[in-house]
Amino acid sequence: MHDARALIDMGAEAVRRLARRGYTLELSELESLYSRRNQNIRSADEMRAESKRVASEVQQTAKQGGDITKLKERARELKDQIREIEAGQEQIEAQLRDLLLSIPNLPDDSAPDGDSEEFAVEIRRVGTPPAFPFEPKDHVDLGEATGILDFGRATKLSGPRFAVSRGAGAALERALATLFLDLHTRRHGYVEYAVPYLVSRKTMTGTGQLPKFEEDLFKTGVADRELFLIPTAEVPLTNLYADEIIPPAELPLALTAHTPCFRSEAGSYGRDTRGLIRQHQFAKVEIVRIVDPADADAELEKMIGHAEACLKELGLAYRVIKLAAGDTGFSAQLTYDIEVWIPSQNTYREISSVSNFGTFQARRANIRTRGEDGKPKLVATLNGSGLPIGRTLAALLEQCQQQDGSILLPESLVPYLGFRRISADGTPEA
């Protein structure tokens, strides 16, 4: 969310930057609402001052035995006028807030121009994609052949875009989550949280999922209570500090959680309907940092390294790209995607997005710290996937597949699994 005054002061510069992400800022509409709001505030303040003066005059005239009839009538008129102005003020405030909530974050100037992945800039490649002396299978065929994944029964339970893991597959999912949490808490300094999976509309609004992306959320409720299933742990983790002032000495805050994530995938009809790449429910380890805005750029680079460390630990080939301004998420200023190699598709696919939101989310959620002058100021927020379990599992199965149909897993997982190989029939083997 933006400060209206700041956008107006930026003027053409704000229009230019938002245009890079395909958003047209109607500056005149914003200026009109802001001006009307301020005029109403001034009128209301003047009326209240006048009302206070008349009330005092009523008391003084009454003490002196004078006629207060006209004064009392004037006092009633002023109260009616104040109520009318306040009602108008509430309406204008709501219109201004709705407009500001609909305006995406200003993209960082270092983000390349463009509106799709084809305009992304590749930063680096790490690891060599495996070369197989046979035709590699995709993770669906591998999972179903070994019996560790069952998409048919998942569809029977819940419909498409769900999966059931079994035996070594379920153990592998648990091992991946524990490995990632251990890396982030023991090596990278994050504090692990267990958070609610159902959150309020206010919480969803704080991180930018609402109001724009309501169609992509699962919603539930009991009686008049409305709750949303989280699309990512970013939502509860960031909002833990909503409406708080964090002491500067406590920054940066580093938070992580392993949660299910729920997404309707409303805008992805017909895309990635097969397998684990795009599902309605999936598990993910999320990393969030809350920092002083001056440190945000350095903290973003640090977080990218933390997400990369998970892939390096597994020995998976991947690349890092910087997203174009028009392909950056609604709340983000700058986003780097980490893409893992998927042999069956002969390409890299996104496995983590790491973003700097600047003060955008902090303004919406009212998360602040104190500056050197002791006055409250907004923090900066960052988040990234570190990592999603399903997509990591898909990459592991495909990159680690053997000609005999078995899966030879990385050594780093053995302490968490107790085995290294999944045989062609799904049996764990040392």
Measure the end-to-end span.
Answer: 53 Å
Largest sheet: 8 strands, mixed
Mean pLDDT: 95
Radius of gyration, CA atoms, in whole angstroms: 27 Å
Widest sheet: strand order? 1-11-12-13-16-10-9-4
Strand content: 15-25%
List unreliable stretches of 5+ residues: none
Percent helix among the residues? 40-55%
Count of helix runs = 13
What does this structure look like?
With 430 residues, this protein is of the alpha+beta class. It contains 13 helices and 19 strands. The protein has an 8-stranded mixed beta sheet. A 3-stranded antiparallel beta sheet has the order 5-7-6. The chain has a 3-stranded mixed beta sheet with strand order 8-14-15. Helix 1 crosses helix 3 (27-63), helix 5 (139-146) packs across helix 12 and helix 7 (168-187) packs across helix 12. The longest helix is centred in the first third of the chain and has 37 residues, at 27-63. The mean pLDDT is 95.
Task: Offer a concise description of the structure.
The protein is an alpha+beta fold.
SSE blueprint and pairings:
Elements: H1 4-10, H2 12-19, H3 27-63, H4 69-102, E1 121-126, H5 139-146, E2 149-150, H6 151-158, E3 164-165, H7 168-187, E4 191-192, E5 198-199, H8 201-206, E6 219-222, E7 225-229, H9 234-239, E8 244-245, E9 253-262, E10 281-291, H10 296-314, E11 318-322, E12 334-342, E13 347-356, H11 360-365, E14 367-370, E15 376-378, E16 380-388, H12 389-399, E17 407-408, H13 414-417, E18 421-422, E19 428-429
Parallel strand pairs: 4-9, 8-14
Antiparallel strand pairs: 1-11, 2-3, 5-7, 6-7, 9-10, 10-16, 11-12, 12-13, 13-16, 14-15, 17-18, 18-19
Helix pairs in contact: 1-3, 3-4, 5-12, 7-12
